Each structure stands twice: as structure tokens, then as C-alpha cells.
Amino acid sequence: xxxxxxxxxxxxxxxxxINYVAIAPMIVVFAAAVLGVxxxxxxxxxxxxxxxxxxxxxxxxxxxxxxxxxxxxxxxxTTVAGTLAVDGPSRxxxxxxxxxGLVGLLVMAxxxxxxxxxxxTPMGAATPGSAIESAAARAGLATTEVFxxxxxxxxxxxxxxxxxxxxxxxxxxxxxxxxxxxLTGLARRRRLLSQEAALKYFLLGAFSSAFFLFGAGLIYGxxxxxxxxxxxxxxxxxxxxxxxxxxxxxxxLLVGLLFKVGAVPFHSWTPDVYxxxxxxxxxxxxxxxxxxAFGALLRLVYVGLESTRWEWRPGVVVIAALTMIVGAxxxxxxxxxxxxxxxxxxxxxxxxxxGLLAFDITAVxxxxxYLVAYGASTIAAxxxxxxxxxxxxxxxxxxxxxxxxxxxxxxAAAMTLLLLAFAGIPLTSGFTAKVAAFMPxxxxxxxxxxxxxxxxxxxxxxxxxxxxxxxxxxxxxxPSGDVGLAQPALLSVVAIAVGVVLTVLLGxxxxxxxxxxxQSSTFVR
Amino acid sequence: MHNQxxxxxxxxxxxxxxxxxxGLTAWxxxxxxxxxxxxxLLLLGGRAxxxxxxxxxxxLSWASFALGxxxxxxxxxxxPAERAAHLDLYEWIPAGGFELSAGxxxxxxxxSFVLLVTFVGSLIHVYSLGYMEHDPDKRRFFAYLNLFxxxxxxxxxxxxxxLLFVGWEGVGLASYLLIGFWNHKPAYATxxxxxxxxxxxxxxGMALAIALxxxxxxxxxxxxxxAGVPDASTAALTAIGLLLLLGACGKSAxxxxxxxxxxxxxxxxxVSALIHAATMVTAGVYLIVRSHAxxxxxxxARLVVAIVGxxxxxxxxxxxxxxDDIKKALAASTMSQIxxxxxAAGLGPVGYxxxxxxxxxxxxxxxGMFLGAGSVMHGMNDQVDMRRFGALSGAMKITWITFGxxxxxxxxVPPFAGFWSKDKIIEAAxxxxxxxxxxxxxxxxxxxxxxxFYMSRLFLMTFHGKARWTDDVHPHESPATMTVPMIIxxxxxxxxxxxxxxxxxxxxxxxxxxxxxxEHPVLPIPVIMGATLVVVAIGLALAWFRYVxxxxxxxxxxxxxxxxxAREDLYQDQINSGFFQWPGILLTRSLxxxxxxxxxxxxxxxxxxxxxxxxxxxxVQNGFARxxxxxxxxxxxxxxxxxxxxx
Amino acid sequence: MNPYIPLGILLxxxxxxxxxxxxxxxxxxxARANVAKAQAYECGIQPTPQAPEGGxxxxxxxxxxxxxxxxxxxxxxxxxxxxxxxxLGLFTLMAVVLFLLNSFFVxxxxxxxxxxxxxx
Lengths: 525, 647, 120
Description:
Chain B: Residues 158-443 form the NADH:quinone oxidoreductase/Mrp antiporter transmembrane domain. Chain B is an all-alpha fold. Chain B has 26 helices and 3 strands.
């Protein structure tokens, strides 16, 4: 153990092997983000919006092509000196991130016929429509930074799902988080709420990052490596000497990641941030962050911590149970649709954890399918929230949604479908997703798996009451106030349509995607 | 000993493997697809389909019936052992360890249901053409009706518990949509909501049963489950059986989840006839019978089914005696009759076939009576209070006669339909050893008497006695679109039982349910039959004395304690809220408080207690980043501590 | 020898030095108070808020601070590159150029165009 303090001898420099084809999608997204910053700097103000939207969409399409076109065998493996793993799960989830990211960007680009993306402020201190705001806009402080920011975040998310060592994972975590903190604070209306949410998200995010780093340090001490597969090998061959480092290390790493997925008791930020952030950002965040964080969590626990799972799994089982119960029960008393969806996302994190804890290859596919299903529905749901307005501001209080079914039947119908999917009603994606995530837990999770499924079924029954409350409100209550739809909203409608179609399609013919997810569930080590 | 024998017999009979569908049966998917296409077209087509939509929906429903009938004819031409056909549709969930193809199981049991659902369903489509003629949302109504038919057919044709669950939720959805169809009335919305909530409790049972079935058998399709039953542990089978029963109780309005059915009468009357009398509410009985292999292997679970059925049949009958709302009285009667079916299903192999037999005859006569009630309401300005009816036999002759035939059928007067099916259930209830035949048999017998009383009360208060009409009503007979379905159903109420007995319906179901030897009840059959007829006669006579000989007050008298309790559904709502709602509310409140107040709350709450000031508590609000961080830290500490303790 | 002993010694030395320097200045330093000394050291900012309940800090100081961080990080990454420059070859040179282009040129260009370099 004396090696601990001796510096490595200065050796020959070895160039890292880089499979550029394998990491091309990430490079494209990051490059587009950098270009986007330049566009912000040099393009004339009026041209920025079309250029940024075009650039972002183009980048995502090219990245998707770069992901899909190469032969799977030629890209699978670790690359960049083993820091990134390109394999089934990371490619599947990257593809999902790109696709849902594109939908999320469309919602962010929504301008409702006005100037610039409607949900974002050019200047945090300016009230919407005020003289200061228009002055800020004239000064070139356009609202188009959201596009490069979102691209940076998306690139970080893709990297998060493929990070094969704890440091890259940390870097990816920060790259995906920092832009989100900023995006959270950019709301044009209810700015104080938004800025407060951003600060909270940042502080708590930093707090959780510290846990992650601390855990990474302890694990490095235990395994002598930060490579995730090496951690797994070290644990399997462990003599037990450094055992005291392992559990705290694992626990803190998990805390860092469980914070991102919003598991109880690390969920407290979720409702505040979901409520405060501009709705398009909330949708993007709820869908994509969850996908990325669960991708990283899957890799960490299935590759790195699998051999030690008997020591830490019971703790996470309790966390999963708590997450489902607290998420479901607290959603009952919410009066704000965004907070309601936030608590529902907490409950969903619990449902996904149930699948994850099954520790079987079928569970990987199930969890990834769940992520797609939930992500598609949730982006559309927040896009809908973004459209429902009263006096220009988002009408997020539930009482404002009363009677929506009579005034705007299509919007209410779409929302109803999405809520039914969240509740896991058959023939929606929510049902097949729950089947895909819960069945491995029943089959391979042992007694605790069955117990978690029982809790999951009870919790989803509780959330169903909540969703039905909203549905009843929309259809059976007389409309009040002056709630209407922001229009024209072509981009939002496209995004909502994609979400709704996916929700139905994945419920009725989930076969192809489930197949793909099942085929993509092998990790490289 | 006796049960074991049954198990082995059923094991052989029930395991008759289904062959791949061929010929006409291969088109079985159209049974579901036709009404589903109708629903989609009407819902998505918008106003463009206003003119022809209702007719199209009706036509598609009839087409589905015609196909079902054709399949039945094809099936009759086959050897009984080869009648079950399996139709693979597509790979529904092909995920790694859990493979499930969506498929249909077309066998004598499911085809019987298909014919019931499509025939009664189509008649009610026709009836609705008249009943809903002036409703501005007629198109939406027919779309929902078609949706319901499709979902119900999916439920009965599914070849696995999971696909059955899809249909199960589908009929639920259609039912809520239709209960709340007139959503401008808040009370109706509440009723739809209540139906949803109560059904959720049942659905939890279904979902857990499916999970447990998967854990026990490694698959959820009927074939694998039936084949795996002999190797499964009794404890697991009992648990599955009880969970399935919970699901069945929710859908079929059985004790203790029956409270929603009365409120569900808020929906349009054709809906009550189709969904809440003839088809959907009997899905629970179908589920139990379809799962007969599980219940045969778990006598405990089966006994609970019988007990639940017995309790509900008495409960429904008692409630039915006190209701003045014609639809709610009929709903209570439905509950009670399904109790009979549940009881029969809980008796095991001696009762399965009779449960389905009674289910089908009940589907006809109860649907007929609901349509009759709708016709009465149509002629009486949508009034439902029987105390304002009376002497309608002259004004509405067809309704009177058709309703009367249904009434005779439910009373079990020979040779009408109910006699053949209900009497068999009462006989079967007297079969067995020990205390069970006496308790179940006498309960069923008593129930028949009470049924005779309250159904006669309903019939006599509505059609006979003195007219107690409000001033503004002018009773008139309904149009032909409404009366023709009523006549057809009345013919069924009268003759179907005899026809089915002559065709030996129980033998028709044998390939599915297995063969069982004839057993003898603890009392001679003629004695049981005689006793049944006597109690029915007594019930009828009592009703005649009270509601025809004596005058009926137009406002309800205060009544005895039991009457008042029965009017309030025996306080089921209050009990439910006591048992289920309040603990839930308390849990929510306390968790919510913990979340809001968090650690800050605990600390400053302490300070407030010490300082004698409550203002500190009020200042505590959600939203402090520091308290969130503290929660996280506490979580980490507890997490670490727990891991440390475990290891 | 236990590998943690040198670490322990270093820790002790660190604490010792801190205590010693603070302690020495307390003992030997002159103690003549004036207003400027009592103020917190903040380069250029009036530390006392204008309003009693807390006024606003001009945001430009933070801009400067953030610019400093950008340069700082660049220096941090350049250092290991400079140390091993002779071994690294063309690939790494290109990588560093790309890195500088991104973090230096792009970031600064953005700040410049947004007026981040203008004091007022």
C-alpha cells in the first residue's frame, strides 16, 4: 500500500485510443453548442432565432444519424482510454435523448406568434412586456441562449449515460447540470419563483455533487481505480481489508445519482424547481435528466457495484419504497399542476427503481423502455401546461384548469390521455412500461422485489386518484376565469402530437421498441 | 377428499388444449375490431359523422354479432373437445424474460359471452337510436357504446390475464365516460368519480393478482396457468384467488365494493341496461369462472367467493326493498343477482355452468327491465320516483307486458328464464357437506323470497295500483326503436331458459370447465323446488297486499330502522369512508405536514413549544433550501447508518 | 511504516503554521485601530450596504470574477500540457489549440459581444 503516496513515474506518453465514429454523436452536439455560442455573439439579433433553431435541429438530426448509421459492432466497446463506454444501453439511451431532446427543443422554441421564445426572459429583472424588457431585447439580449444551453446539457446527458469512470461521470454530471440551473432561472413570468428555483437547484445540486465526489474518492481508495468495471472486479476479488471504505463510498455515489433522479429523501428540490422553471425547460428536464441519470445509475450499479449488491441493495429498496409512497401520497394534496406532475415524477422515479433493483438483464430493457415511455409523455404534458394561459401567464393552478374540456376539448383530451398513461392504464405506454419494469422485479427481485411491486401497484392506484381528479376537473366542472390557449402554437402542437402518438403507440404495439431495448441491454465492461 | 377428486377431474377436462384458429374463427379479431373502428371513426371524425354515425355504430355492432353467430355455428360443427381455438394476434410484449403475445381464446365460454354482449349490445344500440334521439351529443354516446362493446369483447376473448386486464380497464373507462356522459350535472360527475375510485381498489387486486400469477407460473396466459396449477403451492393459489376475487368484487359490485353501482345509475338508461346490468358487471363472474383451475385448487379462496356472493345477494335484496328510485331498485337487484352468480361460482364445479347460465338469462331479463324502466321514464318526463308512478299498465301496454315477462323471469316463475337458471343455483347451493349447504342453500332460498317481494313491489308500484302521477306528465308509449328491442329481450326472458336447458347448456361448457358427476343436494330436489316456489309466492303476495291493496303514499314514510338503513345502502358509504378514506386522508395530511415543515418544522416546533408561541410554527413554510439540504443530509446519514447496521 | 503517517505530519504542520502565524501577529503586532482596517477587504466594492437592510452589489464585479475564473481554468489546463509538451506530439497540440479556441475565443467572444468587458 505504499504506492498510495508515491507519484507515478514519468513514463512515455501514450495516446488515448479514440473511436471517433463511436463518439461522433456527442461531438456533433457539443460542436453545435459551441457554434451556437458564436451565433449568439455575432449573428444579428433578428436572425438569431431562426439560426439557433435550425442549428439545434440540424445538429440533433445529424447526431442521431451518426448514432444510428454505424454498424453496432464497429462502435461497441470502451473508448477514449476507457473513459467512455459505447454499448447497447448508452447507444439506446443516447438515441432516446436525441429524439426527446428534439421534441423538447421544439417546445422551447415555441413563440406563440410573438418575438423570440415566449417562455424565456431576455433580462431577469424585467417584467414581461415592460419598457425595460424591450430595451433589453433591442440591446441584443435575445432569449436564444437557451438553445446552446440546452445542447450543452444534452451533450452532457449523452456523456453521462456512457461515462465509464467516476470522473467522466462527474464531469458529465456537471456539464448536464450547470446549463439546467441557468435555464431554470430564465422564466419570463413569475421570475422570482424561477430565480429562486434556479438558486435552490444549484445549491442542492452542488451539495449532491459533493457527495458524489466524496463517494468517488472513497471508492477510489477501495478499488484503486475509478474505472467502473475495475471497481466491480476489485469488489469481486476483495480480501475485505478496505471494506469500511466501500459502503460509505457506494452510499455517497448513489446519493449523488439518486438526487438527480429525484428519489426520496433527495427529492425536495423537485417540486420547487419543476414549478419555478419555465414549463418547456421543466419538460426537457423531467424527461431527459431522468433518462440520463438512470442511464448512469444503471451502468454504475450493474457494472461496478453488482458484486457488492447484497450489502447496499436493502438500503436502496427502502429508498425506492419511500419514493413511491411519498411521491404518490404528496401528489394528492397538490393544487398546482406543475407541482403535481413533479410529485408524480418522484413516484415514477420510484417505479423505475423497482425495475432497476431486479438485477437481471431483462430489467435493463424494462427500465430503458420505461424511460422512453415516461419521457415522451412528460414532455408533451409540460408542453400542454405551457399552452394553457390566463392573461398571458401560465395557468398552473388546478382551479384554472376547471372546465378546460368544454372550451378546448382537444387539449383536455390530450392531457387526459397523458394522465391516464401516467396512471398506468392499459393501452397506454404507462401500462406496458410498468409491466416491463415490474415483471423482472417479480421474477428476479426475490421477496423484496415482490414487495416493491405491491407497493408500486398501490402507489400507482393512489396517483390514479390524483390524475382522475384533474380529469374530472377538466370535464365536469364549470369553467371559471378567463383561461385560454396561447396561439398560434404550431411547434408545441407538433411536440404534443409526438408525445401523444408515442404514448398510444407504445401502449398498443410496444413490441419493436421493447425488442430494441432488450437487444441493447448488454453493458461492455 | 371430495375436492381433490374434483381437482383431478377438472385438471383433465379443463386442460383440453386449444388448437390454432382456422377457418372462420381466424377472423375472430374482427369481433373486437369492428366496434373499435366504429368508436375511432365517430370520435375522430367529428361533426362530419353526426348524420350517419349512430346508424354506423349500430350496424357495426350487429356485424360483430353476426360474425359471432357464424363462429358459433362453425364451432357447433366441431367435436366438443376441439372447440377451443387459439388465435394469435401479434407479439404484444416481447421483452426478454417476459414474453406475451396478444391472442384470443375462442371457446364455448367466450363465444357464449360474445353472443350475449353483441346481441344485447346491438339491441341497446337500436334502443338508443330512439332514446337518445334528441341529445345533441348523440354521436359521442354511440362512440362510447361501441368502445364499450369492443372492450368487453376484448375482455372475454383475451387469452391471458394481462390482455383481459386491458379489456377490464377498457370497459371501466367506457363505463365512466358513459356514467358521466351528462357531465353538466355535478352529481353525475361525482358518480363517475366514485365508480372510478371504487373500481381502482378492485383493479389493485387484479394488478397484484397478475403480478403474483407471473411470479408463480412464470407466465400470464390461461393455458400455462391452468397447466401449472397442480405444481403450484396452495398458499400462492389462495392468494391469487383472493386477489382475483377483489378485482371481481370491484367490477361486479360485490360486497364490500358494491357502493358505486347505485350511483352509476346516473348514466343514460340504455347504459345502465347494457353495462350495469347485462354485461360489464358480470365480468367478475366471468373472471372467477375463467380462473376455475385456480379456485378448484384452493378451496379456501373458493369458499370466500361463495361467502361474498351470499352476503351480496342478501345485501342487494334488502337494499332493493327500500329504494323508491326505479333505476336504483333495479341496480340493487342486479347486485343481488350477481351475488347469486358469485355464490354459484364459489360452489365449484357444481356451480360454474349455472353461474354462466344465470348470467346469460339475467343479461336478457335485466336488460329488458332496464329498457322498460327507460321507456317508463321516457313517458314520464324522466321521473324515476316509483311513488309518482302507478297504473301505467294501461298507458304503456308494450312496456307493461315486456317488463312483466322480465319480472316473471327474475321471480323464477316456471317456465320463464329465471326459473331454469336460478332454481339450479339454489339446488347447487344445497349440495355439499357440513354446514355449508345449509347456510348457502337457505340464504339462496331466502333471497329468492325477498327478490320476489322487492321486484313485485317495483312492478306493482309502477304499473298497477292507483295513478300517482304529477300533474304535468302524460304517459305515452315509446317509439318502435325502443319497443322492438324490449320485445325481443322479453321473448328471451320468457323462453331462453327453457331453450338453453333443452340444448343442455352445461354440457356445452364442459370442454372449458371440465366434466363433473351429478351430485345430490342435502334435501330432495322437489322439496327445494317447492320451497322456492312457496317463498316466491309469499313475497309476491306481501308486495301485492302492501302496494296494490293499500294505497302508496307519494312521499316516503319514515319507515322502520331497517328500511331507513336500506335506503342509505346500509350505510356502506359511511363505512367505506370510515375504513378507507380517513386513514388515507390522515396519511396524506401527516406526510404533507412532514414535507412542508420538514426538519425546520421539527426544530422550530420545539422552540415554539418552549417559548409558548405558535407563531414560529406558522412562519415555517416549504421552500427553504437549507431545510432541503438538511433533509438530504439526514437522508444520507440514515442511509449510511442503515447500511452499516445491516452489514 | 504506515503510509498515513506522512499525511498526519503534514496536517500537523499545516495547523501548526496557521496557529503560529496568527498567534505571533496577535502578540508582536501593533494594535492601532482605524476605520479602514475594521472594514472587510473587498477589492473596489464599498463593503457597507447603502441601505440598512442590504442594498444591491453592482453585478460588474461578479462579471470580472467570472472572467478571472475562465482564465484561471485555462491556465490550469495549460500547465500539465506545458510540462509534458516535448512528449506529446501533434495530436495533443491540436487538442490544446481546440481547447483554447473553445474556452478562450468562443467564451470571450461571447462576453465581449455582450458587453462584458465594458466597465459601465
